[in-house]
Specification:
6-stranded mixed β-sheet, alpha/beta, globular, 439 residues, 10 strands
């Protein structure tokens, strides 16, 4: 197997990731990132209450408010939040469980952990409102193995709430492995219930039978933080930013060929290149970008020119934007991602065990300018065969990422297929994926 080296590089670290806004597009102050400077650490409960007031209580009214706000989940699928909450309320069995997914298995993402580190009470307020709305009697916050600083911030925040805790739904922390598949919602539910952190291969949906067989609402930290603000200021306020189809703001983790990597709060619908410029990169000097993380898609420089940051236009996924400068090779980067996702298989089915390994090997040969004559056709055939056949969606996302690179970087692909060495092979355009055994 021809492999592509994984050089060292910057990896998103929530404790050290700067929090930023895109000033050119902000018609008012930031929302989720409003408050004291991140240099001061976590916002205290006293400052949080002074800034935003007491949180409203959740209830049936909140489902209607969320429906009118147009809020969509920020965990990757961008599913309408109101529909998910309404489905839990319709379940005859109860009480329900609320799971806040803070595992953030995507290697290029730091936004949810950064939010919990700096605005923990916004996350806790949203979780409480969710629990009261869907009729839950417990909240489980799922954290990945390395998240000691996040766990510490949340434990401190719960202690700060003091007497107010007596009127709130109990909160507990659950630890999971820091692996890609462990962040998938059904894997989070299985781990929260005491099982392995592996995706479930069959129904029922967690809203019907999740943690310990109870109806379970799974939302990531950013989603519940938006809920905490919408409950206070209303759906019309939320829709003042963004677009009619994709209202509000969102958090993005930017890395790669930019001068100022970090977590950015942006209006949905703004031109993607506005964010690139705000991060200190020159659009003309870029070779492309990965939008949406490892389950997202690659875009060549020409495609970036007209792209807008809306889930209806590009696959925003978990809010990742990886920028490649002109010296980076998108095919080399895609091969590294393919190899990582093949290693991260849950090992539950053939498409992951055998299909992703074959995809990674073919991508590695192409990236190394050492392709077999049939590699390109095999990759295209596998892209039609593998999706929808796995025990979970892991093989679908992995194959989609690889194939999107073949399209996005088609002119450069021709050089690799002719065996011309690529200068991008020995360097890192994006933070490299974790190596095996990193956990």
């Amino acid at each position: 197997m021809t492999s592509v080296a994984e050089p060292p590089g910057w990896a998103p670290d929530a404790a050290a990731t700067p929090l930023r806004a895109v000033p050119a597009q902000a018609r008012g102050t930031v929302r989720l990132l409003a408050g004291p400077s991140p240099d001061r650490g976590a916002e205290t409960y006293a400052d949080h209450r002074s800034r935003l007031g007491r949180r409203p209580s959740g209830g049936e009214w909140m489902v209607d408010v969320l429906e009118r706000s147009g809020l969509r989940g920020r965990g990757g699928a961008w599913f309408p939040t109101a529909r998910k909450w309404a489905a839990i309320r319709r379940q005859p069995r109860g009480p329900a469980v609320v799971v806040v997914n803070l595992s953030e298995g995507e290697p290029l993402s730091a936004k949810d952990r950064a939010l919990a580190l700096h605005r923990p009470h916004l996350v806790l307020d949203g979780a409480q409102i969710a629990a009261e709305t869907v009729g839950a009697d417990e909240i489980l916050i799922c954290l990945a193995g390395p998240g000691r600083s996040v766990a510490g911030a949340l434990h401190h925040a719960l202690a700060e709430r003091g007497r107010d805790l007596r009127g709130e739904v109990p909160v507990a922390m659950v630890r999971t492995r820091h692996r890609y598949v462990a962040g998938e919602s059904s894997a989070v539910v299985r781990r929260a219930g005491g099982g392995p952190a592996r995706p479930a291969s069959a129904p029922p949906h967690p809203s019907e039978s999740g943690v310990r067989g109870r109806p379970t609402l799974v939302q990531n930290a950013e989603t519940v933080a938006h809920v905490a603000l919408i409950a206070r200021f209303g759906p019309a306020w939320y829709r003042e930013r963004g677009t009619p189809g994709a209202p509000g703001t969102t958090l993005l983790t930017l890395s790669g060929g930019v001068e100022h990597p970090g977590v950015y709060e942006v209006d949905l619908g703004i031109p993607l290149l506005d964010v690139v410029r705000a991060a200190g990169a020159t659009p003309a000097s870029l070779s492309g970008a990965l939008v949406g993380g490892y389950f997202g898609t690659w875009h060549g420089r020409e495609a970036l020119a007209g792209a807008r940051l809306s889930p209806d236009e590009v696959s925003l996924g978990c809010g990742v934007l990886g920028i490649l400068d002109g010296s980076a090779c998108g095919l080399v980067e895609a091969a590294r991602v393919a190899a990582y996702l093949a290693r991260e298989s849950a090992g539950q089915c053939g498409p992951c065990l055998h299909g992703l390994r074959a995809v990674a090997e073919a991508m590695g040969r192409i990236a190394a300018s050492d392709a077999d004559p049939g590699d390109l056709e095999r990759l295209r055939r596998w892209s039609r065969m593998i999706p929808g056949r796995g025990a979970c969606h892991h093989p679908d996302g992995a194959v989609g990422n690889a194939v999107s690179a073949l399209t996005a970087f088609a002119p450069h692909l021709a050089l690799h297929l002719r065996g011309i060495p690529c200068s991008g092979r020995g360097r890192s355009g994006l933070p490299p994926p974790p190596r095996a055994g990193w956990w």
